Each structure stands twice: as C-alpha cells, then as structure tokens.
Amino acid sequence: MPNARSVATKILNQVIWQRRSLTDCLSKQLPNLTDTRERALAQELCYGVLRWLLRLQAILPQLLHKKMKDRDIQVLLLIGLYQLIYLRIPSYAAIAATVEVTRDLKKTKTTGLVNAILRNFQRNSEKILATVDKNIEAKLSHPNWILKRLQTDWPNQWEDIATANNTHPPMTLRINTKVMARDKYIDNLQQLNIESYLTPDTSYGITLKQPTDVRKLPGFNGKDAYVSVQDGAAQLAIELLDVPSNAKVLDACAAPGGKMAHLLECHEVELLALDNQAERVDLLHNTLQRLNLTAKIKHADACQPETWWDGKLFDRILLDAPCSASGVIRRHPDIKHLRKPEDIANLVQQQATLLEKLWPLLAPNGKLLYVTCSVFAEENHLQIKIFLAKQTDAHEVKLNCGQSQIYGRQILPGEFDGFYYACLAKT
To answer: What span, in angstroms and rounded, lies between the C-alpha atoms of 161 and 64?
Structure first.
C-alpha cells in the first residue's frame, strides 16, 4: 500500500527529472493515499523539498563519496534530509520511515546506504549546513539567474524577497459579502474552531491562521456557495479596475477564474472571459458553476481578436498577463526549478503583443488593468513604459497599493503574494 514518502518520491521524480508541474502531479498522485494525514504529509514533503531543493542538493555531495546515479534514491535522500532539517518529526522516526521506502521501491540493496547517509547527516548537520550555506544560491535555495534579477531590480530588498519565497503562504479566502458579511463569517469559523482575521487592505478577504481543507469551510460548496480561496493581492484587482454599472468587460486571460468570479460577485456587468487552453476553459466553467454565476466564456486566444471579437468596444479590460510567476514562488516552488532564464524574453514579448492587440478594443475613456504575479521589472513597469511611449492615446491612472514604481505599483511577497498592477486609460 502506498504511503506518504513513497508517493512523494514518485511525484518529486516527475517534477525534478521529467520537468512536470507539481500541481498536476499532486492532483494525479495524492488520491492514491486514502488517509488524510498521509496525503497532508506527502504534500508537505513535495512542497518542502522543492522549496529547498538547491540547498538539499548541495548537501548530498558532502555525504556521498561519488555522485548518486539512482534518481529514485537521490530523491528519497532529499526527502529524508528535508525531514531532518525542517520538520518536527523525531529524527529516528523520519530516518526509519524514509529507509523503509527503499523496500517499497524494491531497491533493498540501497537500504543500508540510505540509513548510513541520513545518520551521518544527523551527526554532522551543523558543520555540513555551515559549509553549504557559504554559497548564496544554496543558502537561499534560488538559482543564480533569479537572484541576479532580484539584485538588479530590488537592490535593497532582493534577499528579503528570496526569503519570503521560501515561507509557507497564508491561506486567504474571498467572501461574497452580498451573501454574508466578513465579520459574520469569522464568527462561523470560530464556532468550528478555525481561527481567522480580516485580511488587511481588502474589502472581501479573510486569512486563516492555519490552512484548512476547503471541504470543511462553510459556504465553499453547495448550491449557495459564496467562499473562494484567493490571495489578498489578487483580490485587489477588481477594486483597481474601477468598474461602472452595466459595463462591458473583457477578462482576457481569465483562468482559473478567481478575478472573473470576484468581478461578477461585485458588479452587474456584461462579461466576456477568454482563455486559450481548453482545460483552463473547463476551470472557468467549474468556477462559475460552483458559485452560481453567469458569464460568456470563449476558448480563444486574446492575441487574435479577429477570431472572437464582435466589434463592440469594451469599457474595461482586465489583462492578467502570462508571466514568470516570480511573485508566487512560495505557492509554486517548482517555478524555481522549471522556469528558465530564456523564458522571460518570450513572456515579455507575449505581454507586449497582448497589450498591442487588446488596446484597440477599449472604448474612449475606458480603462485597461495590466496585472502580473511577477516581481521582475522587465515584465512590469518597464513593459508599461515601452507601451506608453508607443501609444499616444494612453495614459496612466495612479493606483494606491504596494510600492510606487516608475509606472504602476508593485506588491512584494510577504503578507500578500507578489503582484504588479498598472491601470491605463484611453484618451
């Protein structure tokens, strides 16, 4: 029967060696664990190992006489090291349970080796970690190319950003306040012994003091669902878009649908939501169905308006652009492993194309809100600077959130995820 560590070994193999998405792998493998505690542990091991992958990988050469060629055992050792450094599981229990996985993998010849390596680390951990942490890439567990970008864009805050990326993100909810007031919902959670507080700087957010299974949350499922999981920074989008009543609105890159749903909960609008991937369009439909909301959804490429636009101008456009996701690494630690330096130029070009193609669809006096979950200047204020230099009928509308940039506002990872916002109005 599979257990948390054996399933985590399989998932991490797929992410590290096959370069697959952690989210996708978890969704396929976690159902194999029937015990909720085992599922929780497997998830913690996967997120934790990927969060600290570079540091853990730097430790292995300190413990091995030669490179470990067996990928299964290499991953298993990373899982063992993660437990010994970061989890409160007693060392003897963590080592014993990790060693047992060699039998599940039918690699009993390595049982003694895995046991010896983990015990060696346990005895000499302080010295080994001091040696490893002399390398900033290992210490902060970020690839050098990301650290260099952070140092360039945020010379006074780059280390704080990297440190925040290695923390557990808060679990924040968005409440449809037309159905229930936030204070009332906090009272309901309190009755279930779920502690929470109002999310700062938001009108709809509640942050849980400890993450909770969404199935235990009142109002998350059922015919009258009114609760969603959405980070506080993402919740700001709809307020910053400044939507008038009965506006015609385009959500250009809408999946998975959090901002789309929030917009529909707050305003009476004519909304068109697009996404260019069929499976993500399914997510949009699922979001609407769960929350009993209605919008027009199309499987279409926002870069090709000629294939989907009816010729009627939009009063508001929400452009949640594809980006490096460098601001949400703490939620998706596999980004540090899967993203490559050359990806950034391609994303910047895609963002520029979206701005160029969508701007003509905006009505005079209309507003376009440009959003990324990136902290890289090239995708954010530098992108908007180039656009405004070219587009003579566009001007910036000042916003009030995060840190002021040359153009737009930047929220850095911390209380919220890392997000960038810029609002552009058409003359």
So the answer is: 32
Residue 317 identity: I
Same domain, 286 and 309: yes
| pLDDT single digits (tens) 315-367 | 999 999 999 999 999 999 999 999 999 999 999 999 999 999 999 999 999 99
Longest dimension (CA), the chain: 72
- Give residue 125's pLDDT: 97
In this structure, what CATH number is given to the domain that contains residue 253?
3.40.50.150
Side chain identity, residue 137: E
Task: At 152, list the tokens.
Answer: 């360039």
373 is catalytic: yes
Helix (H), strand (E) at residue 1: none
Residues 201 and 278 in one domain: no
User: How far, in whole angstroms, is CA 279 from its chain's centroid?
Assistant: 18
Contact 409, 420 (CB under 8 A): yes
**3-state DSSP assignment of residue 9:** helix
Catalytic residue among 46, 373, 401, 423: 373
Residue with tokens 């507080």: 197
Number of alpha carbons in the 13 Å side-chain half-sphere of residue 348 = 18
* Residue 186 phi, psi (nearest 5): -60, -40
Mean pLDDT on 38-49: 97
Phi, psi for residue 320 in degrees, rounded to 5 = -90, 85
Domain, as residue range, for 283: 232-426
CB 297 within 8 A of CB 288: yes
E strand residue ranges, 92-251:
171-175, 196-198, 205-208, 227-229, 248-251
H/E stretch holding 414 reads: none
What is the reported pLDDT for 222?
87
Residue 210's CATH number: 3.30.70.1170
* Coil/strand/helix, residue 407: coil
Q: Are 166 and 147 in contact (CB under 8 A)?
A: no
Q: Do 86 and 206 sit in the same domain of this protein?
A: no
Helices (H), 142-205: 144-153, 158-165, 182-191
Structural contact between residues 16 and 22, judged by C-beta atoms closer than 8 angstroms: no
Residue 66: give its domain's CATH number.
1.10.940.10
Shared domain check, 208 and 236: no
State whether the Cα torsion 328-368-267-322 is positive or negative: negative
